[in-house]
Amino acid sequence: MTPTVEVCATPEDEGCDGDTDCAPRPPWSRGYGGTGADEGASIASDPAGNYYVIGTFEGTIDFGAGPLTSAGGRDIFLLKLDPAGALLWSKRFGVIFDEVGRAVAVDGSGNVLLAGTHLTSETVATSFGGCGIVTPYQGEGVFVAKLDPEGNHIWSRGSVSPDAAQLERPFKQLVVDALGDAYVTFTVTGRFETTPSLAKLDAATGDILWSQPLAAAIPAHADHEQQKDEVLLAIDSAGDVVTTSASIVPVSNCPCVHQLTVQKLTTTGDVLWSRQFSPSISAPPAAGIGASAWAMAVNAADEIRRRHYEASISVFGLPHGEHVLTVTASDVTGASASAQRTVFIDAPPTVQILAPRHETVAHPTLRVATACVDDHPEDCTVRVMADIHGSSLDSVEIARGTSAVDTVVDLSAFDGKTFNLRFTVLDTWASSFLQGATVHVEGSPLLTAVDDAPGRILDFDASRILFINAETEFAVLDRATRTITRLMTVPYPYWLNASSRALLTRTGAVMEVPGVPSAGVRTAVYEWRDGALLRLAAQGRIAFVSGDYLAYSGSGTYLRNLASGTDELVLSATLDPVSFDVAESGLLTYVDGRSLYTHMAGVSTLLLRSGDEITRPVTDGLNVVFTKRVDRNVYQTLLATPSGELPLGVAPVAQPAGTDTGAYQLHGGYIAFLRGAYRSEQVWLRTPTGEQHQISFFAAASRLDDPPGRLGHDGISDAGEVMFLNPPKRYLGAPGAAPREISSQLGHARWFQGAWYVVMGNTLFRVDDGSSGTGGEGGSGGGAGGTGSFTDDGGMTSFAGNGDAVRVGSFAGASSTETGGGARIDVSSTGIGGAGSGVSTSATVGSSERPVGEPPMSGGCAVAAR
Question: Gly residues bias located where (predicted)?
């Protein structure tokens, strides 16, 4: 035998010196990399004592064999060092996307296996010296590559994970068995669970021999605490695989106790045994406490060694300050050993919030009261921060104190803003915070608070307030006795949004309640009626409540008589809330396809049929107004008349539910609508006699005060005053008078029983009774500018207002409209009759121009009994 260098991993005496062991090498320590972002992740050694190091870097780095420059984001580096730590070679792998080197291992032949994560696209693939490899779905994937001892490519695999888009904490270890087959672990995180998994790859080709989960999907908790520990791997002498994976004790809420599962699997993936290690579930929970494995190894006797086991000990009752902790460990023979440590007992502080309540309005002052609950409150600092909605500032401190804060804060500087309070307490050693109330700041002297509720107000009348408490429970407050009646708990409060409708009725209330998301149920419809909760529809929506009538959808579209508690099926089709409406008289209007109907006393009547898409019908029992789409993203507001369609103005582009803004409002024969150029629309009013008046005169666009849950009904008084918004302010306007500034745009205004009210958060305000023609300043761009009017009921009437000349005639004969731009529209109609009679119109446009800010008129309709 020829002497060679002793191979430490074998029992043979390669050095022929009579000693099969290697001489101890002198210790060494070296630094690698530079000042940039570089990080080593894993190290492995080969039989000759060389080392391989894998990691990640950005920019340019030189380990001693020449500079390596990343291709874009993060790239992978692989180093080979000799037994003394001197660099033999370095390599870079990566493309313009991020690649992360996470694990390295060496097989019995000295080949190097490396693993990590990478991103690719249809045109960009990662290469480790061979063909480019890609990830599934162009997402993140777990790669595995095999190189020879000189770093030359043998094979590589693009991903061993089933769904590249959902990887979380992929792995920290890669192991190789005696045959050269590789095992890698990864954790797939779904929306509500994590799944630790294991894959085995063939030594020669890199093909996946098998892949399987190590545990059933581990559910997350409501506070989003999920599995935190990586899956660990080891190989025993028989080639079986030992794994550890962590999960969370299945308690209802956190802080959560961690538990650990150890499994042994055969080379084919069959489970030989599985053991779980966990503290008692009855033990007091604390974040991160429990059984966790940080490292694992298998010795020559196939004994499994795990490093790290955590458990909690109770220090309840020990006072604040220093204490000596003695820990004694005993074995089965009775031998013991003890150790002492000095510990400092300082319970983490917690926050107690006393004021304000959720959805409170600062008008403009606000009482803020909070206390630090701590074992040494003298060292506790309390800070109250305001996280302002829509602000470039992250947060603003509004109060601070030691041990407690109880003060009144002037928030005039934040008038018209909404913010969330955040309460933070910190002592010498720890801190904690608690998200507080949502607060609205309103400083208008024209608003007087007349009532409030212990939650966000949804609806009100003279004697009751319907509100939602902490976004989880519908309830009704009796305004006289202050008695609260709880209606129902919201089972899925996260799905509640601004478009969810909840309205008072004379016998109780009706509510849209979020349904089971996994079952595809969006909302169910419930009625609280005379003390009993009724489910009207397992899946449906509410259009509106007016007087004794409710319009809602379920398996079909229904009109419910709230006085008798009976339903009438109006349409077998299920309509969405913006496709039907109801008036106090019980008149229902709805859109079916491209036809507009009214329904009264069991009879549906066709008002008109359109060649264009129509939606959003609103009625006050006297008029029906609707929206027509006449071009891409061009919508027109139209009044349905016995003669056909009467154009009023423009309508905002339809938005998703919850973000709609109203294009018109109806009340007592009055119609408020928008007219004007795109993003400069102003508010107009049509009176019961047909006159039209411009109400707002601003340079910026105005809009109606119309929340998504009450489109079309609340913003006109009995006398024809209109409440509207010109952000960031709310105004009250009337024909012939300058708009009067009322308040900020926060909340929602409503005309109710002869007075104006504003609902904002948990507070009901009454608006000052002053005339809309006095007080306040005129709007910018118009000041107290004049208004114009015209009559469309008969004859030809000239209109002059805001610079445009318009002539409008009745639909009862030939008519024309002219604008200052010279556009002319001629309209003729024949066969006019009452409701249910046949009507036809035709329209011709004499110019390609159309009135400024107005969409083109569309003709063609028919009226017939359905």
Answer: 772-788
Q: Which residues pair with 186 in a beta bridge?
A: 197
Shortest CA distance to 245 belongs to which of 187, 189, 308, 166? 187
List the beta bridge partners of residue 565.
none
All CATH 2.40.128.630 domain ranges of the chain, comma separated, are: 33-213
The side-by-side arrangement of strands in the sheet containing 755-760 is 447-452, 763-767, 755-760, 748-752
> What sign for the dihedral angle of Cα 678, 681, 687, 692?
negative
Query: Rounded to the nearest 5°, which phi and psi values hold at 495?
Result: -95, 0
Closest Cα partner for 115 from 175, 196, 47? Answer: 175
The per-residue pLDDT for 253 is 52
C-alpha distances in Å from residue 214, one per residue of 241, 375, 574, 672: 12, 44, 46, 64
**CB contact set of 700 (below 8 Å; sequence gap of 6+):** 680, 726, 727, 780, 781
Class of domain 33-213: mainly beta
Q: Helix, strand, or coil here: 551?
A: strand
pLDDT > 70: percent of the chain? 74
CATH 3.30.310.50 fits 350-441, yes or no: no
Q: Which pLDDT tens digit goes with each residue over 647-703?
A: 998 776 544 443 445 689 999 999 999 999 888 999 999 999 999 999 999 999 999
- Which residue spans within 389-460 are E strands per DSSP? 396-402, 404-410, 418-426, 431-441, 447-452, 456-460
Q: Please, what is the Cα angle at 681 between 809 and 684, to 5 degrees?
A: 50
Q: What is the arrangement of strands in the sheet containing 350-355, beginning at the earlier edge strand?
A: 350-355, 365-373, 404-410
The Cα–Cα gap between 790 and 792 comes to: 7
List b or e across 368-399, with b for residues whose CB sees 16 or more CB atoms inside 10 angstroms: bbbbbbbbbbebbebbbbbbbeeeeeebeebb
- Please state, in angstroms and rounded to a whole number, the distance separating the CA atoms of residues 857 and 636: 8
The full length of the chain comes to 866
**Residue 327 to residue 321: CA distance in whole angstroms:** 19
User: Which tokens belong to 843?
Assistant: 């329209």
Scanning the structure block, which residue is given the tokens 């010498």?
Answer: 428
CA nearest neighbour of 783 among 697, 677, 665: 697
Alpha-carbon span 486 to 477, nearest angstrom: 9
Q: Is the peptide bond before 517 cis (omega within 30 degrees of 0)?
A: no
Structural tokens at position 792:
């469309």
Instruction: Give the per-residue pLDDT at 171.
Output: 56
Beta strands in 632-780 (DSSP E): 634-641, 644-651, 664-667, 670-675, 682-686, 692-694, 703-704, 722-726, 729-733, 740-744, 748-752, 755-760, 763-767
**For the segment 444-502, what is each residue's pLDDT rounded down to a tens digit?**
999 999 999 999 999 999 999 999 987 789 999 999 999 999 999 988 777 777 778 99
d(CA 569, CA 556): 7
Dihedral Cα 371, 376, 378, 379, nearest 10 deg: -100
CA 399, CA 381: separation in Å to the nearest integer? 11
Q: Where in the chain is the domain with CATH 2.60.40.10?
A: 350-441
Residue 697's H or E segment, with its range, is: none
Q: Which of 482, 470, 333, 359 is nearest to 418 (CA)?
A: 359
Q: Residue 436 region, left (φ>0) first, then alpha (ψ -120 to 50), else beta? A: beta
E strand map for 317-402: 321-330, 336-345, 350-355, 360-362, 365-373, 381-388, 396-402
CA angle 324, 326, 328 (to 5 degrees): 180
Contacts of 216 (CB under 8 A, 6+ apart): 195
pLDDT tens across 463-478, in order?
999 999 877 899 999 9
Q: How far, in Å, CA of 642 to CA of 334, rounded?
A: 101
Q: Give the whole-angstrom CA distance, residue 681 versus residue 651.
A: 9
